[in-house]
Design goal:
The chain is of the alpha+beta class. The relative contact order is 0.18. Helix content is about 30%, strand content about 30%. The protein is built from 6 helices and 12 strands. Strands 1-2-7-10-9 form a 5-stranded mixed barrel. Strands 3-4-5-6 form a 4-stranded antiparallel beta sheet. The protein has helices at about 1-25, 30-35, 70-85, 180-185, 225-235, 255-265, and strands at about 45-55, 60-65, 105-110, 115-125, 130-135, 140-145, 160-165, 170, 195-205, 210-220, 225, 240. α1 packs antiparallel against α6 (about 255-265). The protein is globular, with a radius of gyration of 21 Å. The protein starts with a helix and ends with a helix.
């Protein structure tokens, strides 16, 4: 009887996973499936992050840190891509023949000599393409001829940049001030690769979609600093008044489902 319950348990978990993939990944390309977003930790967990890019406190990007080996994965990927696409080759090699919005390509970045994974988000004048760097959150414009087709092994790592908003704050007026944005970048060590601790408090509907609403804590100093509190104390933000939702997934997590199945089996 116990063996039968165990088999039923694994069957139902696999069924759940297949249903999840069917709902979320049907109708998208295999390329997009290979480069999907990083999963977020549970609500109850604090986790280490880098803040990689900032538009304002209500819209920024983080990279989730894991074990030292995982932290090296992105660095190794960027190094491998830069070596591969910087090699002297025939001008037609790796060239993207047809560029469409939503494509994931290799693109240079205007501020350094490295190559990065980027998503095509639009087309500009004079042959420029608007791209979003999926591992960092930055946007840029690149000449169409500079874009390269990604090798399949460059697609395996999930996109490392996750869009977020800061919990507990709102702008003083309708829009965030430059002073508030500058202060937030300073408090979060934006693009300085200094870790913060983060916790997902809820999910919030914004003009940029439904984003994880984060509590951010700077633990690099003698006393921990709550980023939202510091912004408010600086007179650059007010306490959040809008309602946010705790519902953030279409399905419960695998762990929650497994627990539920086990309880029913008993």
């Amino acid at each position: 009887m116990a063996c039968g319950c165990l088999l039923l348990f694994y069957f139902l978990v696999n069924f759940f996973v297949n249903c999840y993939h069917l709902v979320f990944f049907s109708g998208i390309t295999s390329q997009e499936q290979k480069s999907r977003l990083m999963p977020l930790p549970d609500h109850s967990d604090y986790f280490a992050v880098f803040i990689s890019a900032v538009e304002h406190p209500g819209h920024f990007w983080m990279q989730i840190l894991g074990s030292p080996s995982k932290a090296l994965n992105l660095d190794i990927l960027m190094q491998s891509m830069t070596e591969y696409f910087s090699r002297p080759v025939d001008g037609e090699s790796d060239k993207v023949s047809c560029i469409r919005i939503g494509d994931i390509v290799a693109a240079p970045f205007q501020h350094d000599d490295n190559w990065y994974r980027a998503k095509v988000v639009g087309f500009l004048d004079e042959g420029l393409v608007d791209v979003y760097y999926v591992d960092y959150g930055d946007n840029g414009s690149v000449h169409r001829e500079q874009l390269k087709e990604l090798r399949s092994d460059f697609l395996g790592l999930p996109h490392q940049a996750t869009e977020c908003c800061l919990a507990g704050v709102e702008p003083l007026n309708e829009f965030w001030s430059e002073a508030a944005i500058d202060k937030f970048e300073e408090l979060t060590y934006c693009a300085q690769w200094k870790p913060l601790m983060a916790k997902v408090l809820s999910y919030k509907s914004t003009e940029n979609g439904t984003l994880p609403s984060l509590e951010l804590v700077d633990t690099n100093k003698e006393e921990d600093i709550l980023i939202a509190s510091k912004l408010r104390e600086s007179g650059l933000a007010i306490k959040e008044t809008t309602q946010v939702s705790d519902e953030h997934t279409l399905f419960p997590s695998i762990n929650e489902t497994a627990k539920m199945i086990q309880e029913n089996a008993e």
